[in-house]
Amino acid sequence: MEFLPAKGLASVTTEGVATAFQVTESNPMVGLEGRTSLLVNLSKALSSNPVFFGHDARPGNIVGEEAPQSIPGFHVLTPDIRFSGERIEGI
Q: Average of pLDDT values for 18-24?
């Protein structure tokens, strides 16, 4: 699986999204342009917040060892946290 940082998201096109989702005349998708715009705007948000998403602007950087733990009120979910029935353990 290849990770798609902000640079990749910024280059997403409506035609590319249509191809990825196998959109055809017989298999239409409502809001294709809006969905594409959302991905491009996400790239801008990732790039403009390196504290949260790192200098490579990857959404996955918000969790794990690289996460911004020094920000007050920011809590990172890690693999050490387990959900058990109605309880979350390890917090």
A: 95
